[in-house]
Amino acid sequence: MSFARRVVQQPAAKLGIVLTALVLLVAVLGPFVVPAWTGYGSNSFAGKPFQTGVFGTDNLGRDVLSRFLAGGWRLLLYSALATVVGVGIGALLGMLAAFRRGWLDAVIMRGGDVLLAIPQLVFALLAVTVLGPQGWVLVMVIGITHAPRVARVIRSSTAGVVAEDYVLASQMYAVPQWKILTRDVVPNIMGPLMVEVGLRLTYSIGAVASLSFLGLGMQPPTPDWGLMINENRIALSLQPWGVILPVLAIAVLTVGTNLIADAVAGASAGRVRSTAKKGA
Prior knowledge:
mainly alpha, disordered C terminus
């Protein structure tokens, strides 16, 4: 049975895919259907501030549903890009540290320790202050803070692979190192790598939304779920939909990606046990 099929067959994965797909559908198609569904643009004036109704208006009298439909794609895009950056850099550094060892291993791991000692929020605040609240800054800050954690996991997984006989044989025949990493190492650490992708995506979603809520991410009048929560929290008891809709969407997306990550971890562990039984 293929690894992907083993993942999909788990109940947690099925529920996670459904929840994630639901939020993805809203976030991706939302900007295209805003005027047709609501009759307002994401920044159009729709009535008095915090006016009640189907979903009502926000603090500036803009339609809550319009801003909700238009505000999800940035969260998803920045979270995905931050995950790619963090997992890509971390996986590369982790494989190099395990493969080369020696001084390079020490430099990479100690550098990661220094970065882990800096709180993510402080690092983000410093970067935004210097470079400004831009999307690429958000992506790089979150990605860089993910990299040391990914590097530790991938280093541990790679260390077990590079000790195998087929890797030693490739080294003996002077196979280029990049070929050994791509042909022998990467396929055998794909399970832990996919688990890290799922986990980092979940953390990226929460980090992007949190930074936008704190004013370090998207800036007004940009429609954004994290920013919507910050803008409308002052009238939560009067007009709660401006907070409830984005909170619910972020929660569903986080739960969905968590379930998929758990399913990938379970499938990866099952493959390891199956390989161990065959070897015995």
